Amino acid sequence: MHTGNQVSLLHKREVLLYGANGYTGQLVARFASEYTLTPILAGRNKEALEALAGNLKLSCRVFNLNDKAALLSALEDVAVVIHAAGPFDVTAKQMVEACLETGTHYLDLNGDKDVFEMLLDYDGQAKEQAVMLLPGAGFDVVPTDCMALYLKNKMPDATNLEIAFATPGGAISHGTAVTTVSKLGEPGAVRKDGKLVPVPIGHKSMWVNFFSGKDNADQKIFTMTIPWGDVFTAYISTGIPNIEAYTAVSPFAYKFVKLQGLFNWLLRKNAVRNFLKMKIGQRPPGLNDEKRNAATSLVWGRVTNAAGKSITARLCGPDAYTLTAHSCLIIAKKILQYDFKSGYKTPASAYGENLVLEIPGVVRE
After folding, report:
1. Cβ atoms of 40 and 60 closer than 8 Å
2. Would you say 19 and 25 are in contact if contact means Cβ atoms under 8 Å apart?
3. pLDDT of residue 308
4. d(CA 33, CA 35)
5. pLDDT at 176
6. What angle, 0 to 180 degrees and rounded to 10, lies between the N-to-C axes of helices 320-336 and 23-31?
7. How many Å apart are CA 20 and CA 91, to the nearest integer?
8. Can you list the alpha helix ranges (DSSP code H) found in 20-162?
């Protein structure tokens, strides 16, 4: 429950959704009524925002994050921001600092471990202002973070955590694709003895039996290590010193990834990254509703202790973007009901291992 100053929030009841005209932002805006929320839609694109706001009968505010005066003015009556405009290594700092200055709670849909690490530096200021900073309020990293804490509570002496995820039938949005391209050629990371250690992306692989949720059937999927946000956030949530994160990939693509050391220098060049971003812009922004409703998200986790004993758990849920929209709205509503903890928080450290089970369609085995 809330540990800050409730009085400061009594006059601030609005939810502001920045990046509302993006693929994920539009889903959040559309689902908001299911939680009796009426977010203010915000972003830079006046024409797109006004059209979306008109369709959903919501209000909108147009401003650029780099216009500090406009940003501060936009947050004066706002209790909580849902920040959905990436890449977050470019946009999070401005929004977080404005939230701290105006006493506004901050949620984002980030999944970049570097951004999680950067925002931790604001923990002290957030506690002083009695506001919560909770990055990763979507698929990155709600289901995996809750899985990590669930397993830690099952095995308090765990020394190793492996988390894997897959999104059968899913696709990535423009924003996620652009963020991925911006990291091409960079090393991966794992948590080892409590410290982040750089390793090549895909330095390890394994087949995982995911729980599909359909007739209790398993789905065996090939996965490889990536620097998913959990190598940072799960350590905060659980204190487990050794953490690896895995994602689904085809065995053929994995062979290509294993050769990445030969051409990482090329992937880091701006010309290559800009070309790929241009190609991304030519693709559809994301799945249509029919395909999104048919897609699923799967999470598998395993903890092991020093004696070699292990415990495994699995969950399945809706498409990653559907899950994201529900999870950030659930958290935003909790904050409006004064259910929050001041300072920098992960989803599980703020709301426990069962937060993910509040999302429609999620089943944990």
Report:
1. yes
2. yes
3. 97
4. 5
5. 45
6. 50
7. 14
8. 23-31, 46-56, 68-74, 88-102, 113-120, 123-129, 142-154
* Coil, strand or helix at 365: coil
Cβ burial 356-365 (10 Å sphere, 16+ → b, else e): beebeebebe
Backbone angles phi and psi of 344, in degrees to 5? -80, 125
pTM: 0.89
| Interval 10-44: pLDDT, tens | 567 899 999 999 999 999 999 999 999 999 999 99
Helix axes 174-182, 23-31, angle to 10 degrees: 140
How many angstroms separate the Cα of 317 from the Cα of each of 201, 211, 354? Answer: 26, 10, 14
Instruction: For residues 291 and 212, give the distance between their C-alpha atoms in angstroms, rounded to a whole number.
Output: 17
- Distance from C-alpha of 303 to C-alpha of 291, rounded to nearest angstrom: 34
Is residue 321 within 8 A of residue 141, CB to CB? The reply is: no
280 Cβ contact list (under 8 Å, min separation 6): 174, 177, 178, 181
Conformational region of residue 276, where left means phi above 0, alpha means psi within -120 to 50, and beta covers everything else:
alpha
| pLDDT of amino acid 16 | 98
Tell me if 143 sits within 8 A of 220, measured CB to CB.
no
Tokens standing for residue 234: 């799960």
Region 111-128 average pLDDT: 96
Residue 73 vs residues 15, 77, 107, 138, 222: alpha-carbon distances, Å: 14, 9, 19, 27, 49
